[in-house]
Amino acid sequence: MPLFLQPVFQERIWGGRALEAFHYDIPNDHTGECWGISAHPNGPNTIINGVHQGETLETVWNTDRALFGNPKEEKFPLLTKILDANDKLSVQVHPDNAYAQAHEGEFGKTECWYILDAKEDAEIIYGVNATDQQTLNEMIDHEQFDALFKTVKVQAGDFFYVPAGTVHAIGEGILILETQQSSDTTYRIYDYNRKDANGNQRVLHLEESKAVIDLTSGSPNTTPVHKEIQGQQFTQFVSNSFFTVERWVIDGQLTYEKPQAYCLVSVVEGSGSVTTGKGTYEIKKGSHFILTTEDQDVTFEGNMTLITSYV
């Protein structure tokens, strides 16, 4: 039986109300993030069906490893979010595993973005123009941010791989699905001198940022692999040691061959059903679930777009 998850919502200074389009009852006008598949202690999902109903994903991961093929990872490795950038996010960078484990006690944060929607001329910040550490430090110290940050135009359907160490920011008017390592460590470099609800500017992390920025970080785009499988449209966006992320555009029926013991699935458009040996379950835009080792003979049926991921 798939593990269906109750989303966790995070208020953000840059959030809005766009997540309502996913059939969510969001808490306020500054809802920035839906944590759709999360075992992170800052926002663990609750299972809403089956024998584990009422338990958190973190608890199930720790107590019923057989559901996930008895993986070697101590902690659930991935986190799936939908972000509503009603306003631009801070310019930031995330540490890699080695730095994060030494200084923060958790995974590093390599991530990737699937652009669900974007206003006309929307853009992201990706990378820096500095090519050596001294230049980088001087440009940060002297706040030469217009010259330092690189920008890229985006539109719906684009995909961007954002490895740890890459300076980045999601621009205003962009809705994305993010697949990332299960980490909540962010170092802010610049935040447009914004103030929070209490009139305080948010904390910056300039020295940490200088320490983890990767000046060799290259193009934001991967090379997607497109195929037609069983008459359905399949795209693999990225596949590496952190995660594999794929898109299925289904119009009809697909017999899904699970590539790993467990797979994460988010419905980002449309509706339909998923059938396993345990039964048939209705799914729609905004549904998030995990196919576990119990889920054999998986069939999707309907008219919908899925983003799937696995380690």
From TrEMBL:
<feature type="domain" description="Phosphomannose isomerase type I catalytic">
    <location>
        <begin position="4"/>
        <end position="104"/>
    </location>
</feature>
<keyword id="KW-0479">Metal-binding</keyword>
<dbReference type="InterPro" id="IPR011051">
    <property type="entry name" value="RmlC_Cupin_sf"/>
</dbReference>
<protein>
    <recommendedName>
        <fullName>Mannose-6-phosphate isomerase</fullName>
        <ecNumber>5.3.1.8</ecNumber>
    </recommendedName>
</protein>
<dbReference type="GO" id="GO:0008270">
    <property type="term" value="F:zinc ion binding"/>
</dbReference>
<dbReference type="InterPro" id="IPR051804">
    <property type="entry name" value="Carb_Metab_Reg_Kinase/Isom"/>
</dbReference>
<keyword id="KW-0862">Zinc</keyword>
<keyword id="KW-0413">Isomerase</keyword>
<dbReference type="InterPro" id="IPR001250">
    <property type="entry name" value="Man6P_Isoase-1"/>
</dbReference>
<dbReference type="Pfam" id="PF21621">
    <property type="entry name" value="MPI_cupin_dom"/>
</dbReference>
<dbReference type="Pfam" id="PF20511">
    <property type="entry name" value="PMI_typeI_cat"/>
</dbReference>
<dbReference type="InterPro" id="IPR046457">
    <property type="entry name" value="PMI_typeI_cat"/>
</dbReference>
<comment type="similarity">
    <text>Belongs to the mannose-6-phosphate isomerase type 1 family.</text>
</comment>
<feature type="binding site">
    <location>
        <position position="111"/>
    </location>
    <ligand>
        <name>Zn(2+)</name>
    </ligand>
</feature>
<feature type="binding site">
    <location>
        <position position="168"/>
    </location>
    <ligand>
        <name>Zn(2+)</name>
    </ligand>
</feature>
<dbReference type="GO" id="GO:0005975">
    <property type="term" value="P:carbohydrate metabolic process"/>
</dbReference>
<feature type="binding site">
    <location>
        <position position="94"/>
    </location>
    <ligand>
        <name>Zn(2+)</name>
    </ligand>
</feature>
<dbReference type="GO" id="GO:0004476">
    <property type="term" value="F:mannose-6-phosphate isomerase activity"/>
</dbReference>
<dbReference type="InterPro" id="IPR014628">
    <property type="entry name" value="Man6P_isomerase_Firm_short"/>
</dbReference>
<feature type="domain" description="Mannose-6-phosphate isomerase cupin">
    <location>
        <begin position="235"/>
        <end position="311"/>
    </location>
</feature>
<dbReference type="InterPro" id="IPR049071">
    <property type="entry name" value="MPI_cupin_dom"/>
</dbReference>
<dbReference type="InterPro" id="IPR014710">
    <property type="entry name" value="RmlC-like_jellyroll"/>
</dbReference>
<feature type="active site">
    <location>
        <position position="188"/>
    </location>
</feature>
